[in-house]
Amino acid sequence: MTLKLNGSSSGSVSIDAPASTTGGADLTFAFPIADGAAGQVLTTNGSGQLEWKYPGLAMADQWRLTTTTNQGSNATVSSNWERVDDSTWGGIGTGLTESSGIFSFNSTGIYLITAIGGFVIDDTDGAVEFNLETTADNSSYAVDAIGLAGNDATSGDAAGSATFSHLLDVSNTTNVKFKFSTGSMAGGSYLQGNTNYTYTGFTVVRLGDT
Description:
Blueprint: E1 2-6, E2 12-16, E3 41-44, E4 50-53, E5 60-65, E6 81-83, E7 97-99, E8 102-104, E9 109-121, E10 128-135, E11 141-149, E12 158-170, E13 177-183, E14 190-191, E15 201-208
Antiparallel strand pairs: 1-2, 3-4, 5-6, 5-15, 7-8, 9-12, 9-14, 9-15, 10-11, 10-13
């Protein structure tokens, strides 16, 4: 049987049922109650209910520090962030939003966060930290990942970097957020930043639905 829908002025669209179904079953599909968002696809829950969902790689975003930040400070990296904007850079979908160093998501899902902290380390600083902090209630933050670097030199500052990754379950875009902080920073240690290339920054990729 064919369901044919005629265009308002010309042409038509037809939907055909298969010649037969598995086991001769009668299938019913229930459409979603509203239109989906841009970039979503129509999926099934396996029981006939159709849903709008984002495909796996619906979002990829990348940010970096633009200048020296958090010198001798053990605190949130709350300023000097920018989305990477090189002429060859390419993101996917609607990226993150940022306010005072706190990053929020546009849609739910499982996200991979990979980060690098680029340091100049004071000669008295044996270890510095670049930390990822997350919240599930838009209030209380906990450290989920730590990147460490150090300077064991007897004199003179040293350059170093620290990397880490984390899988974040964003089940609610209002409550689940993240930020970065520094720890164990002596007075002469700081995070490096530059507006033309990435010393300190991170990449976020949406892997699939939560």
